[in-house]
Amino acid sequence: MSRIKKINHIAIVVENIEDALGFWRDQLGLELDHVEEVPSQASKVAFLPVGEGEVELVEPTDMASGMGKYLEKRGEGMHHLCIQVEDIEDMLKFLKEKGVRLIDEEPHDLPGRRMAFIHPKAANGVLVELYEIVE
Amino acid sequence: MSRIKKINHIAIVVENIEDALGFWRDQLGLELDHVEEVPSQASKVAFLPVGEGEVELVEPTDMASGMGKYLEKRGEGMHHLCIQVEDIEDMLKFLKEKGVRLIDEEPHDLPGRRMAFIHPKAANGVLVELYEIVE
Questions:
Q1: B72 vs A120: CA distance, rounded Å
Q2: With contacts defined as CB-CB under 8 Å, which chain B residues touch A21?
Q3: Which residue from B23, B51, B126 is facing A78, i.e. has the nearest CB?
């Protein structure tokens, strides 16, 4: 049985969502589903579906947050890759057994989803987010 | 009619594909479809399907190439986001009309696909590749 379902989204950190929509929606032609404040991550997020996945534009609302510091240091660009799994607890247990360095040893529960990050040092410099969608 | 079909792949630049498979295949659990030499891009690429898309691990085979210099300067990490479109000529025409800065004004023809890059300065620091799959 595969633990992996699909690429859920690619998150792109941007300075300003309205400006960024000028490219992703108005020029590239993606649909904007909605924009949401995500206070737990000190950011505002625009969700743009693409096939079975999404592009997410993330604008930090607090430059002292992790996302804010990332933007300040590295500039705009791809921030993380989110892989959707069948069962996040099973996946984290499996990764821990393999000795993979994790940011979150246990999943965080958010509305509609459970999530955890793998450390980029374990994944060739890529910040990998794991998602389990909870109906 | 939407011009956009799906996220075709995320490309990750790595120092060594065999080492990188230690995480992406053996720990995360993605399937390895195959590894291919891509001389036109001075690299070796591992293709790992995920849902309707793929993760591609790209190892530069020539450090003087664009990909090699990128790795040297920025280190391992996400390199580009590939969006699959219905008709790449139509898409490039549309983007040119909108004044979007492109790396490739015309598509490159490769076996099974036609591709072109949008300039990252047009896309919030993201190198966006466009693909049309040719049967």
A1: 18
A2: none
A3: B126
Q: How far is it, in rounded angstroms, from Cα B70 to Cα B120?
A: 14
Q: Determine whether the interchain pair B6/A50 forms a contact, defined as Cβ–Cβ distance below 8 Å.
A: yes
3-state secondary structure of A135: coil
Instruction: Answer whether 0.90 is exceeded by the pTM.
Output: yes
Closest by CA position to B64, among listed B80, B79, B44, B42:
B42
Number of Cα atoms under 13 Å in the Cβ half of residue A27: 22
At A57, list the tokens. Answer: 């534009």
pLDDT tens digit sequence for B6-52: 999 999 999 999 999 999 999 999 999 999 998 888 999 999 999 99
Which of chain A's residues have a Cβ under 8 Å away from the Cβ of B84? 51
Those residues with Cβ within 8 angstroms of residue B60's Cβ, 6 or more apart along the chain or in another chain: B13, B42, B43, B67, B68, B70, B71
CATH, domain A4-133, list 3.30.413.10, 3.40.50.12780, 3.10.180.10, 3.30.450.20: 3.10.180.10
In this structure, what token pair is assigned to residue B63?
């450090």
Region of residue B71 (left: phi > 0; alpha: psi -120 to 50; beta: else): alpha
Q: How far apart are CA B102 and CA B28, in angstroms?
A: 35
ipTM of the complex, rounded to two decimals: 0.94
CB of A49 closer than 8 Å to CB of A33: yes
- Look up tokens 């996220």; give the residue: B7
Residues across chain A: 135
